[in-house]
Amino acid sequence: MSKSSQAGAGARTRARELMVQALYQKQIAGHTTAELVAQFQADTAYARVDQEFFDELFPAISNGQPEIEKKIDALIDRPLEQLDPIELSILLIGVHELETRIDIPYKVVINEGVNLARRFGSTDGHKYINACLDMAAQTLRKTEVQASASG
């Protein structure tokens, strides 16, 4: 992998980390999407993220949260309200990416979600995220998953 590819991937990972923090803050403090975009764009950490990726995905996820939550609700084994806010934030990002960003391989989306859960979530939360995003990929990326399985 080239140095620029690694830098790009790292910047995108950092953008996802910022999105987890922003979505968590929205759930806990009730800030609007516009308030959070302004706050996070003013943060020094924003300079090190894939800004285009953050600016595209975060508002879409935040504003589309009720619709994405319906898709998540169909995947999980408990009421949506029982999800940890960090897990919900990670699932919002992952399901949205699986659905709208076909340029990102589904295995990358799952891996990024698992890594976010390891970093920010509960002790075994990454296992739950892995299972949920895998189920989401089976539905949202059926052709890609089947092609990967067949070789």
Number of beta-strand segments: 0
CATH architecture: Orthogonal Bundle
- Percent strand equals under 5%
Q: Structural class of the secondary structure composition? A: mainly alpha
Classify the fold: give the CATH topology: N-utilizing Substance Protein B Homolog, Chain A
Question: How would you state the average pLDDT, rounded?
Answer: 92
Major sheet description: none
CATH superfamily, called what? NusB-like
Rg over CA atoms, rounded to whole Å, is 15 Å
The CA-CA distance between the termini, in Å, is 23 Å
**What is the CATH class designation?**
Mainly Alpha
Molecular shape: globular
Helix content: over 70%
For the record, the count of structural domains works out to 1
- One letter per element, helices H and strands E, the order comes to HHHHHHHH
Number of helices: 8
List keywords for this structure.
151 residues, N-utilizing Substance Protein B Homolog, Chain A, 8 helices
Question: Explain this structure to me?
Answer:
The protein has 151 residues and is an all-alpha fold. It has one domain: NusB-like (N-utilizing Substance Protein B Homolog, Chain A). It is 75% helix and 0% strand. The protein is built from 8 helices and no strands. The longest helix is centred in the N-terminal third of the chain and has 27 residues. The two termini are 23 Å apart. The N terminus is likely disordered.
Mind sketching the topology for me?
Blueprint: H1 3-29, H2 33-42, H3 51-63, H4 65-73, H5 85-100, H6 106-120, H7 125-140, H8 142-149
Task: Give a brief description.
With 151 residues, this protein is an all-alpha fold. The protein has helices spanning 3-29, 33-42, 51-63, 65-73, 85-100, 106-120, 125-140, 142-149. The longest helix has 27 residues, at 3-29.
